[in-house]
Design brief:
Helix 3 packs parallel to helix 6. The chain has ten helices and ten strands. Helices cover about 35% and strands about 25% of the residues.
């Protein structure tokens, strides 16, 4: 049985006067990919932001490696080994690819201090980053910017990576590249919590799944079970994975 790296229990989140999360419960097993699925507005992005402390939980418990994250500041959460790739990607467009990578590496003050073997491995996943190493990040294509955002998250080993809709707006060939890259991370037992609307990616990568609706988790289980049951897909998500092959 896998150990749960991250556990959310009864998590509520308020943003101003709005009550967004209503008792979210699910766990992320260590060494696998957990998909967080649901219709638009279900609360998926808010869940990731709550885990990172960007929007504090108003009730409930979040535990990472057995330690509470509730009330912990975002920089301190990051130092515990959690990386976050927001839907907006979060890259610095005026800086070069190289400068973006150095800023993401806590142990490097300049490019020469980056782990060269790990950097070569990242280049094997995303060759475009090596080609455009000295280019301003703002001049990259949308797909290349997403590659950079993911590369920043893995420039150093992380215990957990939170990724919010990485395939949004990207061409199928770029999505396939991301699936291959995430598949390599999965083979290396990197734990990932992935919010995604592309169900080809969800089916290809997911080990476990939590489905959200109206700020609650309405289903938890194996991704393979959901992928193989079109009735469940229709009931929980309003569509069929089979239509997204």
């Amino acid at each position: 049985m896998s150990t749960n790296l991250l556990e959310l229990t009864g998590v509520h989140t308020h943003i101003g006067a709005y009550h967004i999360l209503h008792g979210v419960d699910f766990a992320v097993p260590e060494g696998g990919v957990t998909m967080l699925l649901g219709r638009n507005g279900a609360g998926k992005s808010t869940t990731l932001r709550t885990i990172m402390g960007l929007w504090p939980a108003s009730q409930g418990e979040l535990r990472f490696q057995g330690r509470s994250l509730k009330g912990v500041a975002t920089p301190d959460i990051a130092t515990q080994g959690i990386a976050y790739v927001p839907e907006s990607m979060g890259i610095f467009t005026d800086l070069s690819v190289k400068e973006n990578m150095v800023l993401a590496a806590r142990k490097a003050r300049n490019a020469s201090e980056l782990d060269s073997q790990r950097l070569d491995w990242i280049f094997s996943l995303f060759p475009a980053l090596k080609k455009f190493w000295l280019y301003p990040a703002g001049k990259l294509s949308g797909g290349q910017k997403q590659m950079l955002a993911v590369a920043r998250a893995i420039v150093e080993p992380r215990a957990l990576i939170l990724i919010d809709e990485p395939s949004k707006g990207l061409a199928p060939s770029i999505i396939r590249n991301l699936i291959d890259a995430f598949g390599e991370l999965k083979r290396q037992k990197t734990t990932i919590l992935l919010v995604e609307q592309n169900f080809m990616m969800a089916k290809a990568l997911g080990d476990t799944v939590a489905v959200m609706d109206n700020g609650r988790v309405v289903h938890r289980g194996a991704m393979a079970e959901l992928a193989g049951d079109e009735g469940m897909q229709q009931r929980l998500l309003g569509l069929s994975l089979g239509a997204h092959q």
